[in-house]
Amino acid sequence: MIPTSHPRYKSLITRERMATCARSGVVAMEGLTAHGRGEAFDYLIGEVTTPGAAEAERIAAALFLTAKHPVISVNGNTAALCADAIAELQAVSGAIVEVNLFHRTEERILKITAILTKAGCTVIDGPVARCIPLEHDRGLCHIDGIATADVILVPLEDGDRAAALVSMNKTVIAIDLNPLSRTTQTATLPVIDEVTRAIPAITRELKGLDRKTAETLVRDIDGKKYVRDAIMTIKGRLIDVLD
Amino acid sequence: MIPTSHPRYKSLITRERMATCARSGVVAMEGLTAHGRGEAFDYLIGEVTTPGAAEAERIAAALFLTAKHPVISVNGNTAALCADAIAELQAVSGAIVEVNLFHRTEERILKITAILTKAGCTVIDGPVARCIPLEHDRGLCHIDGIATADVILVPLEDGDRAAALVSMNKTVIAIDLNPLSRTTQTATLPVIDEVTRAIPAITRELKGLDRKTAETLVRDIDGKKYVRDAIMTIKGRLIDVLD
């Protein structure tokens, strides 16, 4: 048992939860390693939502509000970490929730769908096809979901997939803690924040946003700005450690 | 299958190997997350042995050469990543190899011992006792191993344990990629390098070292210097990305 007084309590509890989800097959083994990479970058960023990330979350909310056909793409790690927050964002945004996996098996899709449904999500069902320009099962998505979406939220997405979605002229909102990853480098809007902080923040922003403000916010999005902001934050913190 | 031409080939193959070892129980689920954290820091450091790390590896070799009773403490991640390199270091240094686990079960000890033995290590057997000032099984170690060692190499060690070993007046050589971790902050000598680069480097240095040079090298070890070096390297690389 991890004592609640432990300075790393939240991180340790989350790690334990991820390990449990890996044992049950919801999280891929590779997903655990990816979670570790995220932990390292979150630590470097200071385990808080930076002002730059908060701004990106507000713009993400504006993209949801102005989208015609928004989709939230959910993988094993995202479902394990924040199924409840996804359900809330769906309720407020009306977005389609699609389970879309890098390590795709029918069994994992069913398990992740069950977690999301239990949390209150409506998960898209129906025909899938290889619409994403990627090889094998990695190109599969739902015809009425990602294939025809204009705005897609991809939390914790692989870099190849984020780039492939951008190449389909989708507006891609990524949530990823690594400011150097291909995902943050290629997404239309990289939200460089921890997923359990980022998704509730987007939902909160969405609740308070009117259409006119949203339309202004989505004009001329400069994704690179958020990458620079995150790198500057890390640099500043490293200098503090040296002092 | 991962193509050998993939820019991240080595990292992906290693990740796959770690996942396989997690499925077989050699690597703890928490060990996979820890591996991911290491990957992130290695990426930030540039996936090379920095001049500072190379210097630390030379001093680590000197510590082995001048030690009376050196021990290499091996956990699941280390065994999965570099059992061969541990066997070579043991052959050259004459150090005792002890399996010592944070997530300790008899089953995992047997599996890790089997991997090490197959690679050519002689693994210490015999009585264990709670000699490390830590609660529960985390305090267990071999009487003729860690308990009575003067110099201990702990690759990929937990911060609490590294600190506990230092509190026992042991000379602790840590191998850890995170310059901000408690392990690197508390070890006598932190080697901030990837374990499959670091251990062969220590072995190479040991082969070319004479006792007199070694005695000079181990005087006044400044562990903090290597922490500063690694942080400066990361900072420099982040600035390069911004340019």
Supply the key terms.
55% helix, 7 strands, alpha/beta, homodimer, two-stranded antiparallel sheet, 5-stranded parallel beta sheet
As residue ranges, the low-confidence spans of chain A are: none
Instruction: Report the total helices of chain A.
Output: 10
* Number of self-contained structural domains of chain A: 1
Largest interface chains and counts: A-B, 31 and 32 residues
User: What does the radius of gyration of chain A come to?
Assistant: 17 Å
**Reading side by side through the largest sheet of chain A, how are the strands ordered?**
2-1-5-6-7
DSSP strand content of chain A: 5-15%
Total beta strands of chain A: 7
CATH superfamily of chain A: Phosphopantoate/pantothenate synthetase
Question: How would you describe this protein?
Answer:
The structure is a homodimer of 243-residue chains. By secondary structure, chain A is of the alpha/beta class. Chain A has one domain (51-241): Rossmann fold (3-Layer(aba) Sandwich). Chain A contains ten helices and seven strands. Chain A has helices at 9-23, 29-45, 51-66, 76-93, 106-119, 159-167, 182-186, 195-207, 211-217, 223-242; strands at residues 70-74, 96-99, 128-130, 140-142, 151-155, 171-175, 189-191. In chain A, the strands form two sheets. In chain A, strands 2-1-5-6-7 form a five-stranded parallel sheet, sandwiched between helices. A two-stranded antiparallel ribbon of chain A has the order 3-4. In chain A, helix 6 links the parallel strand 5 (151-155) and strand 6 (171-175). Chain A is globular and about 55 Å long. The termini of chain A are far apart. Chain A binds chain B through residues 15-16, 18-19, 22-23, 29-30, 32-41, 43-44, 178, 180, 228, 231-232, 234-235, 238-239, 241-242, and chain B through 15-16, 18-19, 22-23, 28-30, 32-41, 43-44, 178, 180, 228, 231-232, 234-235, 238-239, 241-242.
